[in-house]
Specification:
homodimer, alpha/beta, FAD/NAD(P)-binding domain, 5-stranded parallel sheet, 35 strands, globular
């Protein structure tokens, strides 16, 4: 009977295990390899920030898994669960609402980490994560929308300022690269917008420590800091992001930066599936032995960012691509030893260096102990990553895009696919206005947590507590808002768009009645 | 005081009016030009189908309006209304929920047409329109998802067949180009999918007349038909699409083609804003005089697909780019005559020819009376459109993409941005199954129109009529569906995803009670 190796996750770790297995199993058909990933492509993570400024094309940074893994069964699905005793993985339903169960002989866990804003007020509602291609696309679209709106909102200086301020939280490699690319995009684009003065644009990098890039030496960090400042990035050190709303980024200590665009690269959490597994963890990462077996089981392997992998010298492997790919070779080889007999080997790789791009022909790098910065570092950075890109097709496309980028201004297309607003949660901090008297009314709010006050002019006419509806009048009449609602304490609301409300009110009898009752009570109270 | 020309619409018609005005107003600052469009880019419509097969990049087919129109005030907003008496245009709110009002001295209406599936059963819920960039992106993503799912649904031959059948309705230029590109994509991609036999793929073009491409001569149409058939496109003539469901395309006469992907390029309707204007129309298009004035007003002009423009020889201009751009010159010149004095001129352009691509180095063209087909037509087609693309940057990018396309296989990346399912309507035709006993339950249904039956095994246990809920148990327990629901008459339902239902049930008291009542009644009925 065929034996089956199931790999969970299609990042560097998972894909490189599959590639190594494919190469070593070339002439054998007694072992099959299955890889499960939620997207049908592999993201070349180091180049993802370049998508923001458009230096490379939207899809140049990813490779379809099927092109990469020609002898692996790729399943593009969410994973519902893993049963270590029954040795099965359950996949979420696809077109047809029935789950799929896959049996394994060896399981490879390479699920990486997820962005998770748990416990940070308002971040999951209002901060942009930056982890995958959809995040990059959403961020870029939002930034361009902010520019479009700023260009025609000449009469509202406060709104303009908010629209033209872009905040990135987190000063590690990822945050610095995002800030650099965002800055390149906005400053390159703004010259095409009549009615925006380039001096109005502000890009702010917020970092909790006293220097950026803790991953590299102080000298390289200082170089990066100087470079970014020279390009117009404002760097706020020793500042920690604490909360977010649609209107501002709130720092610890209470200072609020008015912004419509907040990116947070900070919180990486273990994948929920890893969390749920009954295997020993440290800091959320799966503990593995030097052979990369997890939980002392002979048939479960873990690697990449979701595992705490012991490296030579008594340290642990850092969560980067160069380490994940080396771990992948060890896992693949050890699984084949387990299947065929033979002595497993431990991980011996200690790392070659670190690199980070600063955009526009500048970078910092520590390679084999050398500190390099500026154009040379950038040139090395590009060359290494271009050669590491999987497949000649992709390399050609990226090289072509890089060449065209030298000639052409940044891409300004706002690519919207989702036009219907859905039911969403929103967060407000004290003093913020939910809506003004006279605004158009486009949604009903339900107050989940916190308190707000209702103002007509400057007179307070009511106070709202958890459970209260507000803004309901606008759903019934087409008149503008008849009062202002201002937040008293930090507050979470559920916003129900007019269209959804209309559908529900028509077909779910309870909804209409509830809202009508509130309206009636309020109008009675007002006329009394 | 400055006079203001406001142009509504950023297609060929609107953009070329603005370009002509910019050129002629170069040294004047007494006239300002405003252009309003819902997207921040101009779509080069003739190349849009190429996005499907990925011959050109996703954003190569569009140009940011601000790059194209450097002296025009571009407003990226929806239009809420036009007041011809007050001479104002009201724009929908942006970030801030307050509408914007713009005064005009001259109004140019260039709103084109919209896809509208009104009156066709199930099309607005289940057919893909193909009009703008978002449509192209959504279609491509869906097609790749269908391939991904087919590759792993080995156990369900019916589902597989449905996933691997792609139907395009409408055999004019637009439908033929979409079918050709879709066919190229699917047949090029499928070789990368282990577990799909290329022979399983079916692309069907449905057309209501007895030959495709009514726009060109019978000889060219016959050439196109032969070419498409040779590439594996099945052409169904004298067949009219009548209804659509998630499971099939239903033809007039009742035949149902099982498919998960139906594209309809057919119904072009007037823009709702044009419909609402108190100006004379014919077949939904604004009637204009030979000078392109609408409704006999000296300050309102209309052109492009939303206008019925008299052309030389007593005919009307067809709705294509070459005519829209010539009309644009006439409108721009006549507006300047109206502002400055001078004699307006009528439209004199009668058309140069017609072209349509068949994908993969083949096309048909009628140019200056000559019929050309095959490679030569394709070469002319590419050259003409490349030269017509606005801006050297875009030309360079498209030329580079076309060159790479000769070397590389089609792009297989499924680019998802919207992951949360929203409240949606769905349509079913008689006999179709909404869900099976044993399926996972992920949504609640509300029956809007039509009838259904509830089956346990083959036994009918209940009948459902308009207003009934079903599938509600799955929202309360996590158990699989305990019965099958099958459609009796054509039926529309509202599907409420579990997440939305959960949010609403928690916070809108009426919702939970309504559903609980139904559950209680049903369990009582069952135990009785």
């Amino acid at each position: 009977m065929k034996r089956r190796i199931v790999i969970l996750g299609g990042g560097f770790a998972g894909v490189y295990v599959a590639r190594r297995l494919e190469r070593r199993l070339k002439r054998r058909d007694d072992v099959e390899v299955v890889l499960v990933n939620r997207e049908n492509y592999f993201v070349f993570q180091p180049l993802l920030p370049e998508v923001i400024s458009g230096t490379i094309g939207l899809t140049d940074v990813v490779t379809p898994l099927r092109r990469l893994l020609k002898r692996t069964d790729v399943h593009v699905r969410e994973i519902d669960g893993v049963d270590l005793e029954a040795r099965t993985v359950t996949l979420a339903p696809g077109f047809h609402p029935t789950p799929q169960v896959i049996h394994y002989d060896h399981l490879v866990i390479a699920l990486g980490t997820v962005t998770d804003f748990r416990g940070m007020r308002g971040l999951s509602e209002h901060a942009f994560p930056f982890k995958n291609l959809a995040d990059a696309l959403r961020l870029k679209n939002h930034v361009i929308r902010a520019l479009e709106e700023a260009a025609i909102e000449g009469d509202d200086p406060e709104l303009r300022k908010r629209l033209l301020t872009f905040v990135v939280a987190g000063g590690g490699f990822s945050g610095v690269e995002v800030a650099a690319e965002l800055n390149d995009l906005v400053r390159g684009a703004v010259t095409s917008y009549r009615g925006i003065d380039p001096k109005e644009v502000k890009v702010v990098l917020v970092h909790s420590q006293d220097r950026i890039l803790p991953e590299v030496s102080p000298a390289l960090a200082a170089f990066a800091e100087k470079k970014l400042r020279a390009r117009g990035v404002e760097i706020r050190l020793n500042a920690r992001l604490e909360a977010a709303t649609a209107q501002s980024a709130v720092l610890k200590g209470g200072e609020a930066i008015a912004t419509a665009t907040l990116v947070s690269t900070v919180p990486s959490f273990p994948h929920p599936l890893v969390e749920a597994l009954p295997l020993e963890k440290a800091g959320g990462r799966l503990i593995v032995d030097p052979f990369l077996r997890a939980g002392g089981r002979p048939d479960v392997w873990a690697l990449g960012d979701c595992a705490r992998v012991p490296a030579p010298g008594g340290v642990f492997s850092p969560p980067t691509a160069q380490h994940a790919t080396r771990q992948a070779d060890v896992v693949a080889d050890n699984i084949l030893c387990a299947l065929d007999g033979g002595a497993a080997g431990p991980l011996r790789f200690a790392g070659l260096g670190k690199m980070g791009s600063l955009g526009k022909r500048s970078a910092v790098a520590e390679i084999l102990g050398l500190n390099i910065s500026g154009f040379l570092a950038w040139f090395i950075w590009r060359t290494i990553y271009l050669m590491k890109l999987p497949g000649w097709g992709r390399r050609l496309k990226v090289a072509a895009a890089w060449t065209l980028d030298l000639l052409l201004p940044p891409e300004l297309v706002q690519l919207r696919t989702d036009v219907t607003p859905a039911i969403a949660q929103e967060h407000f901090e004290p003093g913020e206005i939910v809506f003004h008297e006279g605004d158009s009314g486009d949604r009903l709010y339900i107050l989940l947590r916190g308190q707000a006050e209702v103002l007509i002019g400057t007179r307070r006419v009511a106070e709202l507590a958890a459970g209260a509806y507000f803004g309901e009048m606008a759903l019934v009449t087409n008149a503008p808002r008849n009062a202002t609602v201002r937040c008293i304490t930090a507050m979470d609301v559920l916003a129900l768009p007019k269209r959804d409300f209309g559908l529900l009110a028509t077909h779910l009898p309870g909804v209409k009645q509830s809202v009508e009752k509130v309206i009636e009570e309020r109008s009675r109270a007002r006329s009394a």
